């Protein structure tokens, strides 16, 4: 199988570990499969079987075994040490004919044999985030007004529309990976009146009736960014170029919505001013195994 394996450090410096005759000949990559689950159970007193306490996946461990051949081995070893440093952040890019993904973690060990006739080495990377993520970002949009202008420019003097009001408050997006969180961006459409209250208390519903609601006014130029990814759940307001945490404006009963596998349909509502909002949903496909 043809593949590309690249390691990238926090400074953006990259090292290509794909199999080549005179560079780093990768012989084995562990950690591409779904990580093992941790299952905790307790026995019934005097009864057969047991009951489940909890089940979870702790972390991913990517182990890369490689060899170095040809000339310039010492130089390549120091190039490796320059990018792959124990305890430091590392991003793993992995690409095949059908998938292009990355995982993020921290280098546990980077060992290279010095005095063997056949120089070999092994890199161990621990990934607290267990998923592989697609390189591409996928988008879905809702807007109370959609653009209607197009080229070629009309030659007649007759009026033509620049935009039309949307008759639907639904939008959909397809998730080709495992269930995952996403980033939601709620923007107030431009207005001629500075600091005008253009919308009040927007709410996003999924198909199951679960919702995420943010109470309060949205002013001209406001941008609310919501992230629902496990381990990184935030609600941020950007107003006049200043970011502030507004997690306290998340209404009780709200759910940190996620994308199920397949097509997901969402509905936008607001107490007032729904047509003056633009909503953008962004996500990367996530995979337990590649």
Low-confidence segments: none
User: How far apart lie the N and C ends?
Assistant: 13 Å
Number of domains: 2
Q: What's the β-strand tally? A: 24
Name given to the CATH architecture of the largest domain: Sandwich
Q: Can you give the mean pLDDT?
A: 88
CATH top level class name of the largest domain = Mainly Beta
**Portion in helices:** under 10%
Please state the CA-atom Rg, rounded to the nearest Å.
Answer: 25 Å
How much of the sequence lies in strands comes to over 45%
The gross shape turns out to be globular
Which structural class best describes the helix and strand composition?
mainly beta
Largest sheet: 9 strands, antiparallel
Short précis:
The chain is mainly beta and 290 residues long.
Structural features:
4% helix; Jelly Rolls; six-stranded antiparallel beta sheet; 290 residues; nine-stranded antiparallel beta sheet; 1 helix; Elongation Factor Tu (Ef-tu), domain 3; mainly beta
Structure description:
This protein is mainly beta and 290 residues long. It folds into two domains: 4-130, Beta Barrel (Elongation Factor Tu (Ef-tu), domain 3), CATH 2.40.30.200; 138-287, Jelly Rolls, CATH 2.60.120. The chain has one helix at residues 73-83; strands spanning 4-9, 14-16, 24-30, 38-43, 50-56, 60-68, 89-95, 100-112, 119-127, 132-134, 138-143, 145-147, 163-165, 170-175, 183-188, 197-205, 211-213, 217-219, 223-229, 232-239, 242-245, 262-272, 277-283, 286-287. The strands form five sheets. Strands 1, 2, 3, 6, 7, 8, 9, 10 and 24 form a nine-stranded antiparallel beta sheet that branches. A six-stranded antiparallel beta sheet has the order 11-23-15-19-20-21, with no helix packed on it. The mean pLDDT is 88.
